Amino acid sequence: MRIIALLAAALPLVGHAATLVPAGSEVTFVAKQIGVPLDGRFRKFDAQIALDPKQPQAGKVSFGIDLASVSMGPETDAELLKPEWFGTAKFPRATFVSSAIKPIGADRYEVTGKLTIKGISRDLTVPVQLAAAGANTIATGGFTLQRLAFKVGEGDWADTSVVANDVQVKFKLNLKDQPLK
What we know:
Elements: H1 2-10, E1 16-33, E2 36-42, E3 45-51, E4 60-66, E5 70-71, H2 74-80, E6 93-105, E7 108-117, E8 120-133, E9 136-146, E10 166-179
Antiparallel strand pairs: 1-2, 1-3, 1-10, 2-5, 3-4, 4-6, 6-7, 7-8, 8-9, 9-10
Keywords: Signal
Protein name: YceI family protein
Organism: Aquabacterium lacunae
């Protein structure tokens, strides 16, 4: 009986495609303004993930964020939509598309790909941890983003003594598993 329970718990992590379940998913970030941490989040994002832990190199990850869904507080949200920041009228989405997935331990992976913000693409490697959660899988991870590499915070806002260049990004994705076809 114990073996069956263990196998059932492991099934979500093996050979599946996954769709994002918004409930229980989040993308958050922490930026610093004059040394003070400011929390933010994105309310709208999507992901397409296919991963077989037995063949992670064949896996694919595609992730998109609706930049207009940014939330840091009423006085800041409208400012972040402007061209100096995300420029959402011209660049409504940020995307990440994987080019390689490498196992680094039990249910842990390094996902390498291209992050594109404001039409600028940069290589990025993100550590990701997978965990079974009932019939779903929870993917968690985080990375440091250098905002100026993507021209986020231009003009007067490019001064890193006012707004730090490093932004800490974290995610928790609740994924509904579907068998690979």
